[in-house]
Amino acid sequence: MSDKEKILDIKDLDISFKTTAGVVHAIRGVDIDLFTGETVAIVGESGSGKSVTMKAAMGILASNATVNRGTIQFSYHHADGSPATVDILTQPKKWIRDHINGKRIAMVFQDPMTSLNPTMSIGKQIMEGMIWHFKTPKTEAYAKAVQLLREVGIDDPEKRMKNYPHQLSGGMRQRVVIAIALSCDPDLLICDEPTTALDVTIQAKIIELIRRLQKERGISVIYITHDLGVVAKVADYVNVMYAGKIVEKGTVDEIFYDPRHPYTWGLLSAMPDLDTADERLYTIPGSPPNLLYEKPGDAFSPRNRYALVVDDKAEPPMFKITEDHYVASWLLDPRAPKVEMPAELKARIERMKEEAAKHGSEL
Amino acid sequence: MKKYTLKRLFTSLFTLLAILLVLFILMQLMPGSPFNDEKLNDDQRAALYAKYGLDQPVLVQFFRYVSNMLRGDYGVSYNISKNTPISQLIQTRLPTSIYIGGAAVALGAVMGLILGLIAALKHDTFWDTLATVISVIGVSVPSYVFALALSYALGFRLQWFPMLYNTQLATQSSVLPSIALSMFTMASIARFTRTEMLEVLDSDYMLLAESKGVSGPALIFRHALRNALIPIITVLAPLIVDLMTGSLVVEKIFAIPGVGSLLVNAIQSNDYNVVISLSFIYSAMYIGIMLVVDILYGVIDPRIRLAKEGD
After folding, report:
1. A1 pLDDT above the threshold of 70
2. Which of B214, B235, B256 is the last residue of a domain?
3. Which of A179, A243, A273, B201 could form a disulfide with A299 if both were Cys (CB 3.0 to 4.6 A apart)?
4. Which residues of A touch B218 (CB under 8 A)?
5. Domain limits at B12?
């Protein structure tokens, strides 16, 4: 594990937003690691701070955001091959735009219907980054853009180059957004819920496309999603986020087969599946906390039916289970009563394991 | 696009004819007559009506006017300047109004855009507040107040510009009235630019452009302003016509020989041909500018252009 090269290392990231209602403490000490060529998924409910964390890494936080603590170390290679590591949070905006955005870290946004400029042709939007960062001659940029469109699976790319976003379907637009992201050969691709706004049939194709491109180009990918189905298909590592904190992290197998945090149990139980005997789909009771008002202790405790008294007094530390598997829950403390995951979930995980064994795949 | 433009030109022509007809009917409904000299008796008045063909039915008058118009004859003035052809009457007045109005529009639009851009880019700072205050003053203070203030300060006190319009010094004389007239346009455009830019700057595609690494003027002009311009043009169009057709009050303050005062005089004295031809010219300008605006939309917004090509 130590011989792998770390590309992104987020440590103790803490961000708050000034709003008219008060200060929202959105990110409360997040650690995320990503190694070259691997995929990390960040999973959590809306408002858990998944997107904000990654926007911080891109230097595109909203103007009312304040970074209180933390570092975001990003490692890359200069054109001559010499390695470099920078803390993105300490760099000026202009430097991030010129050296990081698009060139080394690219992002795919959630809604392809709104993330393309409606008054600029597809071709221009793909070529723009190359011309901006590398002063690529127009003809060369054009050829590369056509090649990219072909690579992301768009037919008749020469014709599409002249098209405007409104002439393309949602799935096609997301392919274009992916082509834009890949145009400057970035080392890291951040996909912010890339399939949430798309049809189910298109979702699978886009996921497949991103996976294929990752394999071909050897890039690292961060998935931000609330869809555990997507996570199971793409991720090497999973970070489960709740109320601006990572509550459980581990390899994809550890999270799916050996979840330890009650919130992860809830998320896994809430996944629809065909074999569950229950008529009703399980949901986690309550709603995510309002981060305007901070409560002492574990933010999840009001919704946690296994909550301990200590949960309302002190925040749980990260308990180490294995080299990769960490859980922030007092249930893992040796003094805590022994709590098993719900029987229903246990049965479901057994079924998933059998299924995986039958098909010979990881999951 | 060509087909669309032709279609629009054709419908514009019909619109203009319809406007002309309505004007004729309205003139007939207006009380009084152009010949209201107390010394005239009924016989003399009837003779005058016959001479100018005003005793004919409206439709006959209408068709005769249209056919004369096609030959460039807009009729003569009955009252303001007896028997002078209209074309001669407005020959110097219309260009003066268009010149001053045009300068006001250009000044107002450019200043408004700059002010709005600054306000949006420096959102929630001192500059934003300053721009907002200027806009509110520009919208709420009538142009004649600006005209009087400018005329006093820059004309009377500092004597930089003539206080009254001087045909020999047309350019210098136009400066103060143009500034006074531009204030409302500037303020409206500034407010719209600010709102539209804020909305565009907040959009996902701006975030994508930033995440590509685009920054500085390219980000503002290539990505943001172009998208913000579409609604701005919509408010600008009627303002253009408003200003080009002359403002009565500002014309009075600076003693400008423009068309604004001519029209008011003509209406008061029932000078039919002057009213009709000026109203007709206004309508033609309005329709023309709207046509240009619609074509501009297509140039700026591919969604509109491509939809029109499909026509």
Report:
1. no
2. B256
3. A243
4. 132
5. 1-92+269-311
Please report how the helices B302-309 and B272-300 are oriented relative to each other, as an axis angle in degrees rounded to 10. 100
pLDDT band at A156 (very low <50, low <70, confident <90, very high): very high
> Which pTM does this prediction carry?
0.84
A129/B213 Cβ within 8 A? yes
Which residue in chain B is spatially nearest to A183 when comparing CA positions? B212
Q: What ranges do the domains of chain A cover?
A: 1-93+225-363
HSE, CB side, 13 Å, CA atoms: give it for residue A97: 16
Fold type of domain A1-93+225-363: Rossmann fold (3.40.50)
- Give domain status of residue B135, yes or no: yes
Residue B261 lies in a domain: no
What single DSSP character describes residue B76? B
Q: Classify residue B299 by burial, with Cβ atoms within 10 Å: 0-12, 13-18, 19+.
A: exposed
One domain for residues B99 and B239: yes
Same domain? B38 vs B18: yes
Whether B31 has a pLDDT exceeding 90, the answer reads no
The answer to whether the Cβ–Cβ distance between B215 and A97 falls below 8 Å is yes
**Range name among A112-126, A163-177, A294-308 with the lowest pLDDT average:** A294-308
Number of structural domains (chain B) is: 2
3-state secondary structure of B97: helix
Domain boundary among B256, B277, B300: B256
Cross-chain residue pair B215–A93, CB shorter than 8 Å: yes
Strands (E), chain B: none
Which residue in the set A102, A114, A164 is minimally distant from B306, CB to CB? A164
The interface predicted TM-score of the complex, written ipTM, equals 0.86
| Separation in Å, CA of A286 to nearest CA in chain B | 31
Q: Is the pLDDT of residue A204 over 70?
A: yes
Chain A residues within 8 angstroms (CB to CB) of chain B: 58, 60, 63, 93-94, 97-98, 100-103, 106-107, 109, 111, 114-121, 128-129, 132-133, 164, 166-167, 177, 180, 184
